[in-house]
Design a protein that fits this description.
By secondary structure, this protein is α/β, with parallel strands linked by helices. The protein is built from 15 helices and 7 strands. Helix 10 (252-262) crosses helix 14. 44% of the residues are buried. Bound molecules: S-adenosylmethionine.
Length: 380
């Protein structure tokens, strides 16, 4: 049973593809800004790597790349940073290759349409001075599959990067959807404000997933390699207080689901069987797993204030804020919602969310702050 749910989510989950209004490509400016704000930490992690003379390509992997410019930007920065390091050290410059990895339902086509062409014979000088990712100085390929499983050959990857992806669980814990279980999430669709049993089931699932993630990566990473991870996080010690993630998925979104139930469009049990498979860990949740795994040394592990997911041009325009919140939620959860209640009801749900968020626009703009766990790890 667990296996079926596990496989289903892997087959199903994706950010909204394409380039339309609710696509991830058009609704990921907040992630782009948050990623830029921790670039200095990523570069510091890259600076710790030993430069080795090798015949094999220097390999960069972005896990949970999605479709859009964010992954292209970060891979470009990693490659250019390492090129510069090799050049300054006067060391032979290796060829670079990048693997863009995500679940099979990810819109890789849109990603590859956005990808600049390879300029292989450009001088090092041209590569380093090219404006961010208008040309590409690395070979590229897609790797479909879950990062909770094995993805790459042993000892083949120099840099693993993953941003805003590891908070996605491999599955909603079974107990949370079993009606007679103490962890059944009755009346809710997220763990923010849920019972201790429900929130702890999510915490256990997160830790089990992260343990698997680290186990596979420790086999795939070259010695001397580096791993830089950013995911949604929280500052609270209590798992049922999911902070900004809670406000995003557990308040107006939950109320909008309730609207559908009260209006008789969705029955309560159908709503109860939908749960957002996201968990924002705090530092202890994360650290416990890294320590138990034992394969990695922690170079940095901190929670950072990431800012708001709402990027709006006019902060006084309540309708724009309402639309931005509904789009943020739809971009990341829309595919799961549609699979659960179908497209017409999904449309109704997000319309209600937009209405509710518009009514609470000011409060959302003031209070919706995301936090991120940032981890820089290398092999022990
Ligand atoms: C919010 S997007 C982040 C995209 C990109 N890294 C960025 O910074 O904008 C999260 C991505 O994680 C992917 N993801 C979630 N669970 C995954 C898993 N188990 N294996 C691989 N990718 C996964 C989703 O499909 C999605 O594309």
């Amino acid at each position: 049973m667990a296996m079926t749910m596990h496989v289903k989510l892997e087959r199903l989950l994706s950010m909204k593809g394409g380039k339309g209004d609710s696509s991830y490509a058009k609704n990921s400016q907040a992630q782009a800004e948050h990623a830029r704000s921790v670039l200095y930490l990523l570069e510091a992690a890259l600076d710790e790597m030993q430069l080795t003379a090798t015949d094999s390509a220097f390999t960069v992997v972005d896990l949970g790349c999605s479709s859009g410019n964010n992954t292209l930007f970060v891979v470009d920065r990693i490659v250019k940073h390492m090129l510069k390091r090799y050049e300054s050290a006067g060391a032979p410059v290796p060829e670079f290759q990048a693997f863009f990895s995500d679940l099979p339902s990810n819109d890789f086509n849109t990603l590859f349409q956005l990808m600049p062409s390879l300029v292989k014979n450009a001088s090092l000088e041209q590569c380093l001075t090219a404006v961010d990712h208008i040309q590409r100085s690395y070979f590229a390929a897609a790797v479909p599959g879950s990062f909770y499983g094995r993805l790459f050959p042993a000892k083949s990857v120099d840099v693993f990067h993953s941003a805003f992806s590891l908070h996605w669980l491999s599955q909603v814990p079974e107990a949370v959807t079993e009606r007679w279980s103490a962890a059944y999430n009755r009346g809710k669709i997220f763990i923010h404000g849920a019972s201790e049993a429900t929130a702890n089931a999510y915490r256990r699932q997160f830790q089990q997933d992260l343990a698997g993630f680290l186990r596979w990566r420790s086999q795939e990473m070259k010695s001397g390699g580096c791993m830089f991870l950013v995911c949604l996080g929280r500052t609270s010690t209590v798992p049922s207080d999911q902070g900004g993630a809670g406000l995003l998925f557990g308040t107006h979104f939950e109320d909008a689901w309730n609207d559908l139930v009260v209006e008789g469009l969705v029955d309560a049990e159908k709503r109860d069987s939908f749960n957002v498979p996201v968990y924002a860990p705090n530092l202890e949740d994360f650290q416990e797993v890294v320590e138990a795994n034992g394969c990695f040394v922690v170079n940095k592990l901190e929670v950072f204030k990431g800012g708001s997911p709402l990027v709006v041009s006019c902060p006084d325009d309540a309708a724009e804020i309402g639309r931005a919140l509904a789009n943020s939620c739809r971009t990341v959860c829309g595919v799961l919602v549609e699979a659960h209640i179908g497209e017409p009801l999904s449309h109704e749900l997000f319309a209600r969310l937009e209405r509710r968020a518009t009514l609470h626009a000011k409060e959302l703009l003031d209070q919706l702050q995301l936090f991120h766990v940032v981890a820089s790890l290398s092999l022990a």
